[in-house]
Amino acid sequence: MSRLEEEEKEEIESGNNQVLSRYFIIVLLLCPVVIGILFFTFKIAFVEKDQWNKMAQKQKRPNRLVNPNRGNIYSADGKLLATSVPRYYLYIDFRAEGLVKNLNNKVYLDTFLHSSRNGVDSLAFYLSRKLKNRSAAGYKAHLLRGLKSRSRQYPLYESRVSYADLKEIRKFPFFRLGRNISGLYEKEMVQRQKLFGSLASRTIGDIYNEIETGGLSKGKNGLELQYDTLLHGQAGYNSIIRVGKRWTNVIEEEPVDGLDIQTTIDVQIQDFTEKALVDKLKVLDAASGIAVVMEVHTGEIKAITNMARVRPGVYAETKNHAVADEIEPGSTFKIASMMVAIEDQWSIDQGSQCTSRWIWKNYRSQKYLVFFECRCCKNYFKRLWQQPEKIYRRFKQNRNRCEPLS
Q: What is the pTM of this model?
């Protein structure tokens, strides 16, 4: 090995030693920093844990419910029958930061009373133009009465507004300064919209407009009530945490939307049934009428309508008589009922008051056993109808063997 090569090797080894020594010095300098980080981490996580938790709670507001969306109701062919639309009542908290008379809030209160851009005059003008239930002078007087009353829940508008209207109203004079200053807030409720109007309205049912304490809507009648546990969903929660100078919503638990329900109702058949029933009721001048259309092969109800006279010549659905009223189902079910009675060997009292009898009738060269019943036999039918599973079984066993008579 030449002398030149030895000198180069020594230089490389000397450079490597310098790098290692510098790296070691850097590690020594960083060790106190790492130890300090670990120390303060342990101190905050264990020693000062309660203190920091209390401070975090001060930067956090109570959890709020996040309302789930109520499920929709569809017809047999997938047409939307009922859906939920949010609506809002508007209120003003006249004890809000910008509406309380003190030295700190004097600027905002003067703005509300005297400003030409964000004052009560401009606000009253915009409200009158948008809501149209009061004049500008009427709204000004209404707002000043609220300011004088210092109410925390002063109704701004008696009716409900849509979400689009709410967003627009929030941009009105003084309201655009924010909720904490203007005091404007809303109360959400659910309005159920039926896309086909009164068609099958009583069958679909209604809900209560007010949202319950748990954040869920509640069915009132009809399918809305029957399947309420499936439709209303499950509420979620969000926390309001202060980040810097702003409050931020943080979802703690996501809401679970309600399930959709698909009915067996056929919109076209329902429409035709309602029209035919109303026309016949008008001809007969009847007090009320019921019509139910069933698919015989499956037992699915394709249409159900209940019309009652509300005034001369005018009929509307006021009650679901077909479901709510306890009336006999008709002679169609008596055949299956008596077949079950024969299977179970039920005896029919042939006393002096009973004229019921079985006779053979010829039809198209075949004999049929026919039962003629009297009033006393209705007790037997009532007993049988208390066991609907037997009648259903008989229909199911024989439905493929039944042939319509031409």
A: 0.63
